[in-house]
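Support reply, case 0932

Customer input (verbatim):
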Amino acid sequence: GQKLFIPDGNLKNTDLGGEVNSIPRGIFANPLSDPSCSGYSWSRGFLYYHNGIDIAKWPGCPIRAVANGTVIYSGWSSGGEGYNVRIDHGGGIVTHYYHGNGELYVKAGDKVQQGQPIMYMGTTGNSTGVHLHFSLFYKGRAIDPAPYVSFF
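Our regenerated output:
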């Protein structure tokens, strides 16, 4: 009954509507698991025009990788993301962490471990306050992360 996630494994999926059956459940850590992150609140959920979930906290906190992987981007994006980190976990699964304050602890090409700090929460880019915008992509398609990541 134990669930395993094998980075760079071959996930097979035929159902790309709604939830994706090939993404394992119960293995992704809370990106706000740092003790200084307690007291955050759910700000906005996954919608057809919003490719992730927003979790707000003032004045912010360290953001951690939800699973092992390779950083594929770390820096500024002018498309509304502000300072952000993107991690490839293998098997077509990529996570994005947006609106950091500019304290980026990783760079492209770095291997990260689950729970490793990757950046500090902020309000850069298209942001209305300090929060983490967290997105989960499977084979390039945004998926609601709520069923796969335990945020509370």
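We compared this against your earlier run and they match. Two observations from our side: The first strand starts at residue 41 and ends at 44. The beta strands are 41-44, 53-56, 62-64, 69-77, 82-90, 93-104, 111-112, 117-121, 131-138, 141-143. Please reopen the case if you see a mismatch on your end.
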